[in-house]
Amino acid sequence: MEINGKTKLMGLIGNPVEHTMSPVIHNTIAAHMNENMAYLPFPVKDNLNTAVKGAYALGVQGMNVTVPYKSEVMECLTEADELAKSIGAVNTLVRVEGGYRGYNTDMTGLYRAMQSYGIKIEKEKIVILGAGGAARAVAFLCAYYGAEKVYILNRSVEKAQAVSEEVNKAMGRECLVPMALEDYELLPEEKMLCIQATSVGLSPKEHEVVIEDDSFYRRIHTGYDLIYRPSNTRFMQLVKEQGGNAYHGLKMLLYQGVEAFEFWNQVKVSEELADKVYEVMKGEMHIEE
Ligand code: ATR
User: Fold this and answer.
1) What CA–CA distance (Å, rounded) separates 83 from 79?
2) Residues 167, 176 contacting (CB under 8 angstroms)
3) Could you say which of 6, 70, 85, 123 is catalytic?
4) What are 10-31's pLDDT values in tens digits?
5) Whole-model pTM?
6) Which residues of 33-44 are buried (b: 16+ CB within 10 A; e: fewer)?
């Protein structure tokens, strides 16, 4: 890559940012598409607002935002996309007149990852495991893209209830149904999509899963685990043992980056190039499948 007087700067704001995969994603796409840009991580310890204002003053075209600032950054924006506003979290800033517009490409990226596997949301019955920050965003996504019913199961049922209330109110329909995790036997006896959005199963506790019972997995035709480390979680194994298809979350990470890149550079990244970037990511993470 040659840096010259016309190189556009993009970056990532967060803390910590040392282990991010985003520079690999963006710099690989930029190299293949001959986009004159560079992407750098910026550890922001405090003064988020000053960092965003400073980036704007320096002419930075676009930023990603990661932990712990995805909600807080909304106060530093001039505008935000409708889905991002409902979710209350932003991971992508796009330069506009006077500041930045915020998007949540974590969720649109998840949607695109699921589409790439042929997984449908519209008119589907879906099970979400978890009701934390990630699960809440997934619940909004499912309702937003027209799921018929979303059963949200959580260890602390009151969190599932709070998320359901919030999403149903925002969408103006009774789409979400809160349930306690241990009540999974009350789920309809039919095959559904299940999105695993708890933190259980993350390396180094990769043998853990929130539900072990086969009778639960017999209801699942497809399992999508937001976790990608390990790349074959216990949840995925249990789905597959009962004949379902199962996927890990690395493509969500890929497509959140692809979508941000497309916003910043006003281009379309081909599926062929997305596949190439995915291979590079798998190589970096020592993931085979
Ligand atoms: P994230 O931002 O990744 O969503 P989070 O907001 O801390 O993280 O949410 C973690 C999710 O994993 C929650 O749904 C949590 O359940 P509780 O709300 O009951 O805590 C779930 N979780 C974490 N450890 C769990 C465990 N041992 N058993 C069941 N669920 C667990």
Assistant:
1) 12
2) yes
3) 70
4) 999 999 999 999 999 999 999 9
5) 0.94
6) eebebbbebbeb
CA of 79 to the centre of ligand 1 (A): 31
Copy the structure tokens of residue 96. Answer: 């506009």
**Ligand 1 neighbour 208 (Cβ under 6 A):** no
pLDDT tens, 35-73? 999 999 999 999 999 999 999 999 999 999 999 999 999
Strands 62-65 and 8-14: parallel
DSSP category for residue 20:
-
Secondary structure (3-state) at 180: strand
Residue of 198, 212, 229, 234 to mutate, ligand 1, most atoms within 8 A of C-beta: 198
How far is Cα 222 from Cα 125, in angstroms, rounded to an integer? 12
pLDDT for res 43? 98
The token pair that represents 288 in the structure block? 């085979």
Q: How far apart are CA 192 and CA 254, in angstroms?
A: 25
Q: Are 40 and 11 in contact (CB under 8 A)?
A: yes
Euclidean distance between CA atoms 61 and 267, whole angstroms? 14
Q: From the CA of 3, how far away is ligand 1's center (Å)?
A: 43
Told to judge if 70 belongs to the known catalytic residues of this protein, a careful annotator would answer: yes
Q: How far is CA 180 from the centre of its chain?
A: 24
Neighbours of 113 (CB within 10 A): 24
